[in-house]
Amino acid sequence: MDTSETQSITTPAEDEELVAAFETCILTAVPMVLRSAVELGIIDLLAREGGASAQLSPSQIAAHLGIANPDAPRTINRMLRLLASFSYLSCTLHGDQSLYGLGPKSKYFVSSEAGSFAPLLRFLQHKTLINSWYGLQEAVKNGGGLFENANGTNIFEYAGKDPALNTVFNNGMESPTPLYMNKILESYRGFEGAKTIADLGGGVGQNLRLILDKFPNLRGILYDLPHVIKDAPAHPRMERVGGDLLKSVPKADILFMKWLFHGLRDDFCKMLLQNCYEALPPNGKVVIVDPILPEYPETDIVSRNSFTSDMIMLYTSPGEDRTRKELEVLALSAGFDKPRIACRAYNMWVMELHKKK
Predict the structure, then answer these.
(1) Is residue 310 domain-shared with residue 192, that is, in the same domain?
(2) 21: exposed, middle or buried (C-beta count within 10 Å: 0-12, 13-18, 19+)?
(3) Of the listed 64, 94, 126, 262, which one is catalytic?
(4) What pTM was computed for the model?
(5) For residue 3, is pLDDT > 70?
(6) Is 2 contained in some domain?
(7) Looking at the domain assignment, is residue 329 inside a domain?
(8) Taking Cα atoms as reference points, which of 183, 335, 185, 354 lies closest to residue 253?
(9) Residue 8: its pLDDT value, please?
């Protein structure tokens, strides 16, 4: 008899509550297994072999990857059936053999110039970052940031002294960019009419290059720490400028920030916005792409993602995600008008800050 036909002595409601609670205890297996599947090359292999229509057995996968360990097919099968259960992969039974292909979610973890979450997954599951979680109780009791308490400095300064982690960090921030920016640039018209744009904390310039390609009349300034921008590919209308956001920012018609604002404490955000205010012309604006937390802990997927993102900020940076009201307070404190929410793309919002008339 198939196990699905076994008489259950618990109700669906009981299953939902207890099994969901149990799943919380073991859920760390999913991102760790997915990370290993990415780093072993399994996800890219399935993409090359047909994507959703791929039909590879664990033995074939091991052979393709040149893995000679005789136990590898069994371990690979255990990993991939978990990922299939969470819709990262597809699975077809052929007799007693399981054949795997890509699933609905796995396309976002394939190496691609069109964007991928794989490098972000590698960064967030990096041992240095994961170890920071074990300091959460200490941070609650005694204060301080999780990463700083564990490593003696913040993530940005630490990455500046660790070239390997710096590469992982930059790749993690850069690789998902096209997924968001291409969607935003399809509809958002806030860059039209401007002559100059500065990407503040712009990393290696992926955001800025996409914006400049979309708007050929724009000239761009990539502004970040010197050790970050040195790795940025060139663009004919992009100037690389190294500096400290809290000391000054370049003058431009638009000051752009993506995934930066939520990485800073309130006092730093206020100082940054004051610098932005001084650098902007009267009709200029700040454009921020970041999560916005709901005022109430809703249970829809976007809200859950936003609150989870805030926990990532808790252990990786001194900052936090904020509600619309909290963002409004910061904007007003620096002399700007109330933020204008232009649009939402997936789990990110586009906000504009204008000087008061």
Answers:
(1) yes
(2) exposed
(3) 262
(4) 0.88
(5) no
(6) no
(7) yes
(8) 354
(9) 82
Q: Has residue 139 been placed in a domain? A: yes
Answer yes or no: do 319 and 199 share one domain: yes
CA atoms within 13 A on the CB side of 224: 24
Q: N- to C-terminal Cα distance for the chain?
A: 74
Shared domain for 195 and 330, answered yes or no, is yes
- Tell me, yes or no, whether 89 and 166 share the same domain: no
* CB contact at 8 A, 184 and 256: no
Pull the structure tokens for residue 76: 């690979």
Query: Angle formed by the axes of helices 177-187 and 206-214, to 10°?
Result: 30
Burial (Cβ within 10 Å: 0-12, 13-18, ≥19) of residue 54: buried
Coil, strand or helix at 320: coil
Q: How many residues does the chain have?
A: 357
Total count of domains within the chain: 3
CB atoms within 10 A of CB 13: 8
- Nearest residue to 79 (alpha-carbon basis) of 117, 46, 114: 46
341 token code pair: 């929410």
**Alpha carbon distance 57, 181 (integer Å):** 36
Q: Among this protein's residues, is 262 annotated catalytic?
A: yes
**What pLDDT does 1 receive?**
47
Q: How many CB atoms lie within 10 A of CB 282?
A: 7
